[in-house]
Amino acid sequence: xxxxxxxxxxxxxxxxxxxxxxxxxxxxxxxxxxxxxxxxxxxxxxxxxxxxxxxxxxxxxxxxxxxxxxxxxxxxxxxxxxxxxxxxxxxxxxxxxxxxxxxxxxxxxxxxxxxxxxxxxxxxxxxxxxxxxxxxxxxxxxxxxxxxxxxxxxxxxxxxxxxxxxxxxxxxxxxxxxxxxxxxxxxxxxxxxxxxxxxxxxxxxxxxxxxxxxxxxxxxxxxxxxxxxxxxxxxxxxxxxxxxxxxxxxxxxxxxxxxxxxxxxxxxxxxxxxxxxxxxxxxxxxxxxxxxxxxxxxxxxxxxxxxxxxxxxxxxxxxxxxxxxxxxxxxxxxxxxxxxxxxxxxxxxxxxxxxxxxxxxxxxxxxxxxxxxxxxxxxxxxxxxxxxxxxxxxxxxxxxxxxxxxxxxxxxxxxxxxxxxxxxxxxxxxxxxxxxxxxxxxxxxxxxxxxxxxxxxxxxxxxxxxxxxxxxxxxxxxx
Length: 479
Ligand code: NAP
Description:
The protein is 40% helix and 24% strand. It has 479 residues and is α/β, with parallel strands linked by helices. The chain has a 7-stranded mixed sheet with strand order 14-17-18-13-12-20-21, with helices on both faces. It has a 6-stranded mixed sheet with strand order 9-8-7-10-11-23, sandwiched between helices. The longest helix is centred in the N-terminal third of the chain and has 24 residues, at 93-116. It binds NADP nicotinamide-adenine-dinucleotide phosphate. NADP nicotinamide-adenine-dinucleotide phosphate binds at residues 144-149, 171, 173-175, 203-205, 208, 223-225, 228, 231-232, 246-249, 280, 381, 383, 409, 454.
């Protein structure tokens, strides 16, 4: 088995296996993956529980040192891991390199938190009383991750969980276990004690239920779809587990009449089509002020038509495949729904099967115009290279349209007007705002997450990431 489960420091082959295939060419089997069972998940949670006290008692800077060492090892394996990610997930090699670099930076950033582990100290109201509060780890934490950032997302959950002194069980997406495994392998090679990090692959429903029902589990952090996040939440609250959910988006880019149109087009293309539109922060609606709508659309469509779709290992490729047949079918279904609802397909939208693309899940990037607010493609997350262009009469109308969805992850505005920028920051319902930048492209030093149906619980990344992974212990000490 190429990828086994890791339970209490031991490799476990699970119950049979499944193929990990390249979405750009399904004849290419990246590896065979051990299928973990509910029993494996329970064993993994128990192993994490057994390892907890010793790891929690290890000084936090020493725990951080393991993350630094793992980052060094990932750096040494950088090119190999990036190439594997392109084979496994389909994103371009440049995107995969960027993601592996980000995972390494995240390990380093949270390695440093080991030396800080910021607590609180304030003056007491009482004489000769010293008042302070320290962070304590929770115990065993379950991490469930999606396939679209197969290294960065596991990294931004593993690193704060571990440096805070928790032990973990990671259940990666079935489509991309290898990228997640490379992080776990680096931690093991860096000397993390057996049982502190456990890794179980297999069916999300079976393993997710077993994880949440396992007695010692204290918290679960999930990134994925709203549908699965909702199911997981219902189950977890019955056990009063701490829950963190990062889910979907329907992210707008607003283009005002005074924007630099060429830059606005660049940022829209990048936001909508990078990583094949398979980003939670991808631009899926571009809302354009009437006065520049037609000029913007003309440039946008010309640029979109020129994008090169192909295997991410080819340096000329700009857009890789959908992750699997299910996602490809979903994208094609939304393209049909857009047409049926009366939007006009200005370019793209074909399932590409010619030549070298015959064995992958490729679709031409699509731009719909004349999209109205109530249409399915203006309301539901598609998670593919499909962009809906919407017309707004003015700034207020653009903000109203932007906010008229259930989601609130990221939002972007393109304008030179600083007052409009601040009005937008104040009024837009989103956890992340970008100005004269694409809607996607975030950094690990600041909080990450959305509002409305996009997220639940404390934000990830940045210094406050520790809030989810720790409890406060407050001390009043008379001397
Ligand atoms: P998904 O289908 O919800 O799967 C996410 C993870 O949950 C996978 O590991 C999956 O395992 C597991 N899972 C499936 N059913 C489960 C269940 N019943 N209980 C517990 N776990 C279960 O999402 P995806 O298709 O991988 O990812 C795409 C979604 O993620 C999009 O909606 C995107 O917006 C969202 N996303 C959000 C963020 C953010 O930070 N807000 C970032 C990236 C992606 P299997 O793979 O084995 O099914």
